[in-house]
């Protein structure tokens, strides 16, 4: 597609966007006219909310203004204002995540109090969107599925379409393509049956096809999403489809088309006030212009990208968002504690009622002294048990409140403190011993007769202590370095790399590293390399670090199994393979070691989690490796393992740019 054609298409886009916006004007005019006419104030509140909804796809600032008017009127009338809170939260979602979360939570509590199921589902979806923005998969999907259940209970199929598509987009964000395909296909089938729009759904299906390397299918789906979004003048959807198309062309090695669609998506998002859309488009444009060596254009869009990141995810805003989330968790925990206290109170009332019955029975049978004695004994035992139960309940409630206050801080510091404590204790102990040795040698040298042998022995011990201090100091330093590497962000330069050569080099490096520590250890190394694989654009230093870590772990696993299976003829083996697929390249690292238990497999990518003995691992290697592969290269890192049989790690990377070009990516 030549440049002149691009310009003509861009002109047509601007005209079409204007036409799409004008297509909404009659409805907006009709709603505004109704607001000006005499009518009940409660109806006026709902009309203002509808106007805010209509503006949300066109101009976020106008949507915010009408939502504020609706909220102010509802509060003045003491009318339910959950809908207005939700609309205002939606308008503020792009610029103030913390405030938006507060508004959605308030609206959700109102909906639950008045049993308004549609409004409850709307707020659950809105809160889920915020958690997905923040890459909190568990929380986001939890809210999405709660909203889906309400839609299904109400029999509202139009709402169900939206919830299914949102769940599919969430799985797509975390590269779980099978789940993403399943939910998007369900949403698409239901939407086609209902005759509703499918522009968002086609965009989600296009993402799945692109990541699977089905490039022609992805282009068709993005184009259909784009055309339908243009027809209805939905600027946010125009941004999504355009950015999807730009990402596809970047993956296909067509930078001119990628830049064209990224600019188009950026313009649509700026008109709407959709800051996250501006961020996504400006990020693509920054990468593309840097790859082409156009520094001025790259700087322009990089400045825009940085401004969007600061507006959306600045440190102050993230901290405030965490505070809001923490307060909501405290509120939920307090409500749960109050519920438990209420249940305990009911149990107490039941016990008291039983006690009254026992007393009545005692009065009826008072004439029988023997029975009277037994009843009194039972009554005393019941009173003691009741007092003990009440005391335990009160103590449990106090412990629960204190434990939850400390849980947040404890989770943050426990991993770091645990890892640093051992090397610091060694440094302290060896330093104290070294001090005693210095005092001892001073005493020997000032004595009447110097003992050269004793001095030599003391100095040798002192030297050994200093070596131990250095070793454990380096251990603490490596933990801190690993933490810093795990958190730092920057830009690395992709270069066309011989992936087969990189794989072989790091396998040999890992093997020699293990052999340096255990000279008696030997293992069979094998490779299955795709000879048709050409140069692949990667950050070779970062990817080499991943390969070295995976190979070292594989050798450690086979070494452990060899130790456990001594005398059985077990032969350690590590195999590494490469294979090129449609639009992707795959690297597999397989061993016949001890394998990973199912209970451990779910946690191996967590920072500071390790199964190695103290001092042999920081627990950051696999976490850092997955960050390099997913965030730095847009790929995936997965694991397959059977306990006692072996483990296989699988890296899948997209083929993004031609070998002659380099591209900036995020390095861990």
From TrEMBL:
Coiled coil: none annotated. SUPFAM superfamilies: ATPase domain of HSP90 chaperone/DNA topoisomerase II/histidine kinase, Homodimeric domain of signal transducing histidine kinase, TPR-like. PROSITE patterns: HIS_KIN, TPR. Residues 415-657 form the Histidine kinase domain. The chain crosses the membrane at residues 349-367. Residues 1-23 form the signal peptide. It catalyses: ATP + protein L-histidine = ADP + protein N-phospho-L-histidine. Keywords: Membrane, Phosphoprotein, Signal, TPR repeat, Transmembrane, Transmembrane helix. TPR repeats lie at residues 121-154. Gene3D superfamilies: 1.10.287.130, Histidine kinase-like ATPase, C-terminal domain, Tetratricopeptide repeat domain. Its EC number is 2.7.13.3. Pfam families: HATPase_c, HisKA. PANTHER family: SENSOR HISTIDINE KINASE, TWO-COMPONENT SENSOR PPRA. This is histidine kinase. It comes from Hymenobacter saemangeumensis. The lineage of its organism: Bacteria, Pseudomonadati, Bacteroidota, Cytophagia, Cytophagales.
